[in-house]
């Protein structure tokens, strides 16, 4: 049985259909990558899976039970880093990680937090407040929060964002190690190398054009008249 099962997910915003009939499975020890154009609906899937958004239709099952992100069972299983990095302005880097680890009653929390600070090269910044970090360091802090807590499913939205080359190498190795440890991973990414190195399955999200109701049959592009070349659009001037 898959750890995460998504069936028939639909998400509409007013008249606009972003997702329709979207399904996927993620098994323990496997990674599924969501790919697709900007606005295709990847973050929407991840937000529904983490309970940050509510699908218009469909079911989401985590380890055989309907997803309820408020339940202790679900919170103990699901670690996520989405797009909206949200930090407490008055808590330092190390205080953030301590808080997460202690909230999840992690044994040897100090040791784990130290290890993760070293691993993410944040150890020299552990006393800083989030707003004093670089954007890449803030991203590292957000990722660090997922690794100082228990987890069976990791949900990541473009985890490669703002990471430097060393950070990308670390991320790739870490996600592969997480899989070896039996974690299920669902992530959205625009980084083809990361997807190729980590994903066991790649799911293309898209089809419904945002802002419009989903067409039942896709419109065919008009054919150019036979013998004539297609007229080129005039270049726009600034
Ligand atoms: N709260 C909302 N209200 C209206 N439309 C929304 C809302 N949230 C998302 N959308 C629309 O849903 C579509 C899908 O957005 P989403 O963030 O899931 O795309 P994405 O595939 O993650 O894109 P990107 O690659 O740019 O991160 C977009 O067109 C977006 O404008």
TrEMBL record:
<dbReference type="GO" id="GO:0005524">
    <property type="term" value="F:ATP binding"/>
</dbReference>
<dbReference type="InterPro" id="IPR003593">
    <property type="entry name" value="AAA+_ATPase"/>
</dbReference>
<protein>
    <submittedName>
        <fullName>ATP-binding cassette domain-containing protein</fullName>
    </submittedName>
</protein>
<dbReference type="InterPro" id="IPR027417">
    <property type="entry name" value="P-loop_NTPase"/>
</dbReference>
<dbReference type="InterPro" id="IPR017871">
    <property type="entry name" value="ABC_transporter-like_CS"/>
</dbReference>
<comment type="similarity">
    <text>Belongs to the ABC transporter superfamily.</text>
</comment>
<keyword id="KW-0547">Nucleotide-binding</keyword>
<feature type="compositionally biased region" description="Pro residues">
    <location>
        <begin position="212"/>
        <end position="225"/>
    </location>
</feature>
<feature type="domain" description="ABC transporter">
    <location>
        <begin position="4"/>
        <end position="232"/>
    </location>
</feature>
<dbReference type="InterPro" id="IPR003439">
    <property type="entry name" value="ABC_transporter-like_ATP-bd"/>
</dbReference>
<feature type="compositionally biased region" description="Basic residues">
    <location>
        <begin position="229"/>
        <end position="238"/>
    </location>
</feature>
<feature type="region of interest" description="Disordered">
    <location>
        <begin position="205"/>
        <end position="238"/>
    </location>
</feature>
<keyword id="KW-0067">ATP-binding</keyword>
<dbReference type="Pfam" id="PF00005">
    <property type="entry name" value="ABC_tran"/>
</dbReference>
<keyword id="KW-0813">Transport</keyword>
């Amino acid at each position: 049985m898959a750890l995460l099962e998504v069936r028939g997910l639909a998400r509409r915003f007013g008249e606009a259909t972003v997702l329709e009939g979207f399904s996927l499975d993620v098994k323990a020890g496997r990674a599924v990558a969501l790919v697709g154009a900007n606005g295709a609906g990847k973050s929407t899937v991840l937000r529904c899976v983490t309970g940050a958004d509510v699908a218009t239709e469909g079911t989401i099952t985590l380890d055989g039970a309907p997803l309820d992100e408020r339940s202790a069972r679900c919170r103990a299983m699901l670690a996520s880093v989405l797009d909206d990095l949200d930090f407490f302005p008055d808590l330092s880097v190390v205080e953030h990680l301590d808080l997460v680890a202690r909230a999840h009653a992690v044994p040897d929390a100090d040791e784990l937090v130290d290890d993760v600070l070293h691993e993410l090269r944040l150890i020299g910044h552990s006393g800083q407040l989030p707003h004093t970090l670089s954007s890449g360091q803030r991203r590292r802090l957000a990722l660090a929060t997922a690794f100082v807590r228990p987890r069976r499913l990791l949900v990541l939205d473009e985890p490669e964002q703002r990471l430097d080359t060393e950070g990308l190498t670390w991320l790739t190795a870490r996600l592969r190690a997480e899989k070896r440890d039996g974690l299920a991973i669902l992530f959205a990414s625009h980084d083809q190398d990361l997807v190729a190195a980590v994903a066991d399955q790649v799911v293309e999200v898209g089809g419904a054009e945002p802002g419009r109701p989903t067409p039942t049959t896709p419109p065919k592009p008009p054919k150019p008249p036979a013998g004539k070349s297609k007229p080129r659009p005039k270049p726009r001037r600034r």
